[in-house]
Amino acid sequence: MRTADAYQRCEEITRIEARNFSYGIRLLPKSKRQAMSALYAMARRIDDVGDGPLPRDDKLAGLAELRADIDTLADGGLRDPDDPVLVGLHHAIGRFPIPTAALNEIVAGCEQDAVGKEYATITETEEYCRLVAGSVGRLSLGVFGTRGDPEVASELADVLGVALQLTNILRDIVEDRGMGRVYLPTADIERFGCAPDLTGPRDAVGKLVAFEAERAERHFAEGLKLLDMLDYRSRACTGAMAGIYHRLLARISEAPAAVLDGRLSLPTKEKAWVAARSLAGVTT
C-alpha cells in the first residue's frame, strides 16, 4: 500500500471517529497531522477491541495481536503491508521520534477493561488514566517536539492526560455502567454514600461527581503548563483538544448529577469555536 493512501485512510478514521481530538489535529501542518492521524487510528483500533462485544478471552487475544503489531513496529518492521493504519504508523515512526512503547500502555489499559479491574483508590484510577490518556500525550510529544526539559514535558502530558480522562469518566458514568465498568475509586464512592455501581442516590452521586470534577480541574491547571513548551501549531492543537474537554468539565461542574441522565457533549459549533480560539493563541 502506498504511504499517501495509508495516511488518507488514517485521516478519514480520525475525522469520522475522533469527535473531539480531530478539531486539534486539523490545526497541525501536514506531516504532523498525518502522523497524529496514524497514532489516533491505532489508538482507536485498540479501544475498539477493548470496548467491543467480544467475550473477555477473545478481547485479550485481540489485544495480544495488537501488542505484536506494536512490537514489530518498534523493531522497524511491518506485519501487514496492506494495513493502512500500520503502514501509516510505520512511516510516522520513521519520520518522528515517537515513543512506540507507549502504545502498549493503551493496550494495558484496555486489558484492564477486558478483565473488569476495580479501582480502590484515586491512585489506581489515575494510573489507569495515565495508561489510556497520558500515553497519548507522550506519543503526541514525539510528533510535536518540545521546548525545555523533555522529562518535564512528559510528566505534564501525563497530568493533562489524567485531566482529560477523568473528564471522560465523569461524562460516561451511565455508558460505562452499561458495560459493567466503574472507574471512580471505591474509597470515594463509599465516602459519599453512593451505590457501588453509581446508580444513586442522585444527590450523593452529584456530590461525588462535583468532588472528582474539582480534582480534574486541578490536573488541568497543572497539565496546561505543557502549552508553554510547544511550538505555535502544536500548542494550538493541544489547546483545542484540551479546551474542548475543559469546557465539558465546566458543564459537568455546573450540574454534576446531570451525568446520570446521559452523556453530555458540546455542540459542534462550540468545538469549532474553541479550535479557532486556540489557533488564535487563546487557550483558556
Describe the largest sheet. none
* Low-pLDDT residue intervals, each spanning 5 or more residues: none
Number of strands: 0
Average of pLDDT: 94
Number of helices: 13
Order of helices and strands: HHHHHHHHHHHHH
User: Which structural class fits the helix and strand makeup?
Assistant: mainly alpha
Shape: globular
| Span between termini | 41 Å
Helix % is over 70%
Beta strand % = under 5%
Rg of Cα set: 18 Å
Index terms:
0% strand, 284 residues, 13 helices, globular
Walkthrough of the structure:
There is one protein chain. The chain contains 13 helices and no strands. It is mostly helical and 284 residues long. Helix 7 crosses helix 8 and helix 12 (232-254) packs antiparallel against helix 13. It is globular and about 55 Å long. The model has no long low-confidence stretch (mean pLDDT 94).
Please provide a brief summary of the model.
This protein has 284 residues and is an all-alpha fold. It has helices at residues 3-17, 21-25, 30-51, 56-74, 84-95, 102-115, 122-144, 150-171, 173-178, 186-191, 202-223, 232-254, 268-279.
